[in-house]
Design brief:
single chain; 7 helices; 21% strand; binds arginine; binds 2-oxoglutaric acid; binds fe (ii) ion; oxidoreductase
């Protein structure tokens, strides 16, 4: 793992800027703050920027972890019971700003109209009623491993998590392409467009607000939900591997794949890949102040099961999706500087 531990001096150097920004804005979702983030990121300590750039460019590992960011746990207050409205009056605004700046050094942060009401910074926390449902807010059921937003051509290059609370040390699970024994797998078959991927539940209308409050955005979002539905009904055939055949990139979410109609060779190749991924799966328990950038091309991830408490002391992470090619999704966004994919 590519890892950096922030020292007390690093924290002392960073926090004045974080505090100033947290005072100047009301929410991390303010488009002015998000737009300025890549510029503000240039004021982060040089060794941190070099560390992130090395991860981005040379791919030394599929995981990049920054630890040691100061989190005053007694000042966080209760874990929200839902992600809705958690962006206002955040007790972790300074940490959110740091997370946003680091993410903006790796690429452009973006959101989905169909997920968490189009917000850029998501919450990952257990939600009552979701215990046995396949979604990030489940708990008694483990979250099956996946490429983040595997179904979508505009999925992020990185999915990143910042831990605020994890009292039961619940493990995030990861399996990384550099750890897999590719020589034993039918890589050529996995590069062929013979596999079908469906959208995951977090993009369904049943997990969204009735309205965004803006009729134009509602129309765009409705079109987006229709597209998701059509992909559910008629998934397109595509490869699960791409890039370099000697060091492949991956895109798969087996929980949302139906193997109906796949050729025998491709089905066998897929099953062997899944078995190898599972064989190399490991757990990472995030601590408050840990930030992990998961290379969404080179690692799949999930989460172990746990018992939610629903008393304000639950596990609580923040999540950002990052792309290195915002223009790649231009057809899906209403304006060049709009970061929400419809
Ligand atoms: N196997 C899966 N893809 N499960 C759903 C993944 C979690 C989803 N990204 C969410 O925000 O809730
Ligand atoms: O809770 C975790 O550690 C991972 C969450 C996740 O993968 C997701 O919400 O998509
Ligand atoms: Fe995920």
């Amino acid at each position: 793992m590519h890892r950096l531990v922030l020292t007390a001096e690093d924290n002392a150097a960073i926090f004045p800027m974080l505090t100033e920004l947290a005072d100047a804005y009301d929410t991390i979702e303010d488009p002015r703050l998000i737009r300025l983030a890549p510029v503000l990121a240039r004021s982060l300590p040089a060794h941190l920027l070099e560390f992130l750039e090395e991860f981005r460019l040379t791919e030394p590992s599929a995981l990049c972890m920054i630890s040691g960011l100061r989190v005053e746990e007694d000042r966080l207050g209760p874990t929200p019971s839902h992600w809705r409205d958690s962006q206002f009056g955040s007790p972790a605004f300074e940490q959110e700003v740091f997370f946003l700046l680091c993410a903006s050094a790796l690429g452009d942060v973006f959101g989905w109209a169909t997920q968490q009401d189009g917000r850029i910074m998501h919450d990952v926390l257990p939600i009552k009623g979701h215990e046995h449902y396949e979604i990030g807010s489940n708990s008694l059921q483990h979250l099956s491993w996946h490429t983040e937003d595997a179904f979508h051509p505009c999925r992020g290059d990185y999915v990143s998590l910042m831990c605020l609370k994890n009292p039961d040390a619940v493990e995030t699970t990861v399996s990384c392409s550099p750890d897999l024994d590719w020589s034993a797998l039918d890589v050529d078959a996995l590069f062929e467009p013979e596999f079908t991927q469906m959208p995951d539940n977090s993009h369904l209308p049943e997990n969204a607000a009735e309205s965004t409050g803006d009729p134009t955005l509602d129309r765009l979002r409705a079109r987006s939900f229709r597209l998701i539905q059509s992909w559910n009904e008629h998934p397109e055939k595509r490869p699960v591997l791409f890039g370099d055949r000697n060091d492949p990139y991956m895109a798969l979410d087996p929980y949302h794949m139906s193997t109906d109609g796949w050729p025998r060779r491709h089905l066998d190749a897929f099953r062997a890949l899944c078995a190898e991924i599972e064989d190399k799966m490991r757990g990472i328990s995030l601590c408050p102040g840990d930030i992990v950038f998961v290379d969404n091309f080179r690692a799949v991830h999930g989460r172990k099961s746990f018992t939610a408490r629903y008393d304000g002391t639950d596990r609580w992470l923040k999540r950002l999706n990052i792309t290195r090619n915002l223009r790649g999704s231009r057809a899906w966004r209403p304006a060049p500087d709009n970061r929400v994919i419809y």
